Amino acid sequence: KEIYDIAVVPGDGIGPEVSKAAVRVLTEALGSTAVLRFAEYPAGAELFQRTGDSFPAATFEACRSADAILHGAAGLPGVVHPDGTEAGLDFTLGLRSKLDLYANVRPIKLWPGVTSPLRGREVGDIDYVIVRENSEGLYAARGSGVFLRGEVAMDPLVQTRKGIERIVRFAFELARTRGGAPADGRRRVTCCDKANVLRSYALFREIFSEVARGYPDVEAEYALVDAMTLHLVRQPSHYDVIVTENMFGDIISDLGAATVGGMGMAPSAELGDGNGFFQASHGSAPDISGKGIANPYGTVLAGAMMLDWLGRRHGDRRLLDAARRIELAVHDALAQRNALSGDIGGTMGSADITGILCANLAPAASAA
Ligand code: IPM
Ligand code: MN
């Protein structure tokens, strides 16, 4: 493939600022040749306020047919549906279900120059990936449970053999192929559940154990989600890949992000068999939007994940090479501590950070 079509959905709040930063770094990393063709499409809370439609059919069609989707952020406080849920989330949640993006990959990595709130933790101490099941579990109940306004609400938690099997396989495959390693150098997948209390999680654990037998080279272990939050604070260096149900993945990935500098440092990739959707894990931060001070690293790193995913799928070295060079540029910018936004202890704005990242990019390897 010569050219890849990327659907960019800037969204609300700081979304447009951070997606612009990522598009700039990606374009720069791929050099002058137009390898990526970006086109912008509307979705989100602001659009909903204006038009009554948070996720237009044309935006969905563009996302479905694109080679990959890059999102800024969405949502504005108070812009809600009659049942009280947020309209700005329709895009992200709608894409997940319509495109069956079942694997939500959330790397938690402490970069140099970024201070962890965990005492004594340094680069290399925190480097694991949360694989969040993204198609079923508690989130799949959205809008379909029992709802009697002001009186009763019920959201059933459903997990299926098919859904559990594919996410657990994904996690074991990732453990085999990903870079980085826990402190002891062992590849492992941790099953994070609440199998001692709820049947759906007991099924998750049962199927995890079955699948794990097919990966004797990877250590399999278990943690109850409440204990997991404690381990991720006390002993983060133990972890490699963690696989978990949708809602638990949502919660522990924010906890993980906090240990490596906050939501601004946390990228996210949502993958199906045919589509890939990339964004930072953070929200639209309307309190700081338009000020030019948003942290662009999460979205830039999500952009690098996008290149890596596309590069592997299409066997395209140009993309894989660009992904590596973006990660190195991020590494250098952070290590030198001269390109830090307010949330990670600096004073620099998004545009200046983006400029430094572009300047840090090593020249592309000559095409193989
Ligand atoms: C996330 C976010 C989303 C979620 C929202 C925006 C729907 O918090 O990606 O973690 O709850 O899954
Ligand atoms: Mn979340």
Automatic annotation (TrEMBL):
Keywords annotated in UniProt: Amino-acid biosynthesis, Branched-chain amino acid biosynthesis, Leucine biosynthesis, Magnesium, Manganese, Metal-binding, NAD, Oxidoreductase
GO BP field: L-leucine biosynthetic process
EC number assigned by the record? 1.1.1.85
Q: Which InterPro entries does the entry link to? A: ICDH/IPMDH, IsoCit/isopropylmalate_DH_CS, IsoPropMal-DH-like_dom
PROSITE patterns per UniProt:
IDH_IMDH
**Keyword RNA-binding attached:** no
Q: What SUPFAM superfamilies would the database entry show? A: Isocitrate/Isopropylmalate dehydrogenase-like
- Names of the cofactor(s): Mn(2+); Mg(2+)
- Describe the location of the Isopropylmalate dehydrogenase-like domain by residue ranges: 5-357
Named from the GO MF annotations, one term is:
magnesium ion binding
Spell out the PANTHER family in the cross-references.
D-MALATE DEHYDROGENASE [DECARBOXYLATING] (PTHR43275)
Annotated family: Belongs to the isocitrate and isopropylmalate dehydrogenases family. LeuB type 1 subfamily.
> Could you describe the subunit structure of this protein?
Homodimer.
Q: What is the protein named? A: 3-isopropylmalate dehydrogenase
Q: Which organism is it from?
A: Azospirillum lipoferum
